[in-house]
Design a protein that fits this description.
Elements: H1 2-21, H2 27-49, H3 52-56, H4 59-82, H5 88-109, H6 118-134, H7 145-170, H8 175-195, H9 199-202, H10 205-236, H11 239-244, H12 249-261, H13 267-289
Helix pairs in contact: 1-10, 1-12, 2-8, 2-10, 4-7, 4-8, 5-6, 5-7, 6-13, 8-10
Length: about 290
């Protein structure tokens, strides 16, 4: 489970840098450049440290991994679309729906014994709920049907992507190959999104590199480490834990912002993070007993 904890730390640091980059660059431009850099990092590590993987991968394996990566990319698109009119509170609530979809599938098709993880899961959800409901409401169309549909599809796609990746790892597909494949898919999706942007945005790529280039390089390293460690954690645990522990990511992001950029922090967020940490420890004990 240590891999999942390492993953959420890297994701939190990456999210913090995203906030800085988006103040200087178009989101599609930044996503494309970041994914391209991450793809190069992954390919470099794959070629120089584990070249044998390239000889073991066949066409069917590429298809299975690409399906999981595309589902994750579709979830990302739905999340971006939902956040146009949605709120962080809604995003948090629908993150819980992702867990609900995952649990429902595991109970229905895998005979998953959820009771073994009940106490730890409950603590993490309570801690995350404290975080969600202390977020100030922002003026938005909270009842917008399109926004709710986007959030629901996001939850479904993210849950499906995690489950497909899990099945792939059970078939001994290397997590490193899955990371490289996913980042290439994200780059392609980002490139399509960028191509649909106005011409004025597409001509700003050099300005984006000059202003945010060093941040994008750091983000590329962070997201590679986050995805790889997350996949390693998913491989040795299960989709429930892999979807539960990332609930701490937004709180850790705010904590790092307070530590490094003097951003606001309050006691309720500290309490939420503490309860989630206790829940994670209980889950760790459950895994060791299993």
């Amino acid at each position: 489970m240590i891999y999942l904890i390492i993953s959420i730390v890297f994701y939190s640091l990456n999210n913090l840098l995203w906030k800085k980059v988006l103040q200087q660059a178009n989101s599609w431009m930044a996503m494309s450049l970041r994914a391209l850099l991450t793809s190069f990092i992954g390919l470099g590590i794959l070629i120089f440290s584990s070249p044998e993987i390239l000889y073991e991968i066949d066409f069917n394996t590429v298809c299975r991994v690409s399906i999981a990566s595309c589902l994750g990319a579709f979830g990302l698109i739905c999340m971006i679309s939902a956040l146009i009119n949605g709120t962080l509170r809604q995003l948090g609530i629908f993150n819980l729906l992702t867990i609900a979809f995952t649990v429902f599938y595991l109970l229905l098709f895998e005979n998953f014994n959820f009771l073994n993880f009940l106490y730890g899961t409950s603590l993490i959800i309570v801690g995350f709920s404290i975080y969600v409901f202390q977020i100030k409401r922002l003026p938005s169309e909270e009842s917008n049907v399109k926004t709710i549909i986007y959030y629901t599809l996001m939850s479904l796609f993210f849950a499906s992507s995690g489950l497909v990746h899990w099945y792939n790892f059970k078939q001994s597909i290397p997590p490193l190959f899955s990371v490289v494949n996913q980042e290439i898919i994200v780059f392609l999706i980002g490139g399509i999104g960028l191509a649909l942007q106005p011409k004025s945005v597409k001509t700003q790529w050099l300005q984006t590199i000059v202003k945010s280039g060093y941040l994008l390089v750091v983000m590329a390293v962070l997201i590679f480490a986050a995805v790889w460690s997350g996949f390693l954690g998913l491989k040795i645990t299960n989709p429930l834990l892999a979807s539960l522990l990332p609930l701490a990511t937004p709180i850790l992001t705010i904590l790092f912002g307070a530590l490094f950029f003097k951003e606001k922090w309050n006691k309720k967020m500290g309490l939420a993070l503490f309860i989630i940490a206790i829940g994670a420890y209980v889950l760790h004990l459950n895994l060791n007993q299993g």
